[in-house]
Amino acid sequence: MSNSTPIKTPLSDGSVDWLLNFERGAKQASSAFLKAYYQSSVPAANTPLSRVPFLAMDFETTGLDASRDEIVSIGVVPFTLERIHYSQSKHWLVKPIAPLNADSVVFHGITHRDLDEAEDFENVIEPLLKVMAGRVLVVHYRSIERPFLYRALEQRIHEGVVFPVVDTMAIEASLCRSSVWARIKQKLGIKPESIRLGDSRMRYGLPNYPSHHALTDALATAELFQAEVAYHLSPETPIGDIWL
Fold first, then answer.
1. Spatial contact of 232 and 171, defined as CB atoms under 8 Å apart
2. Maximum Cα–Cα distance across the chain
3. What pLDDT, in 10s, does the model give residues 171-213?
4. Model pTM score
5. N or C: which end of the chain has fewer CB within 10 A?
């Protein structure tokens, strides 16, 4: 892959004022944990990526529908553009409210035995929000982590959480499916390039990791984002251009 394919237009339209959202959240949150999270705030939208502390996050869930499925595993890895702080990473197995069924075990590979010693999600809320505090989350497909975490908190403490994310899948989509060449291939009936996590990593020569483990996938996402910045963005790109 060449670094001659920059992202020419911002992914974010700048319509969400995240600093203001966090100020409001700090005033309105009832939970002490959630209030402390919002008080930690987020970087200003004009902060260059080189100065932003990030947190890669991945969930394993019982399915893809946040309205009925649940989180069973959480992996988080703090990092910056220069360094991945793997020694500060965390991984939790959490018990879903509803019992596991055969279909969900096939989906995420986590069994009843794995969850015998798992935490109740309510006990994970405080340490999870603490490690999220002050960092911008990086995920691969934002339609999992943000809605699932919102609902999990709403079920336990009766209020959800909102936060900006950088979506490495959205970055790949803008590169692989929105270019002139991508549109030409589409007209020719050529199948678009995969933007799944493992396939995206292959385009940058990153190693192949086993998938469907929350901590491993969080690490894989952090490495992918570093590669995307190196090839297609710039350390001076404002975070407000790419967060969603």
1. yes
2. 56
3. 999 888 666 667 777 777 778 889 999 999 999 999 999 888 9
4. 0.92
5. N
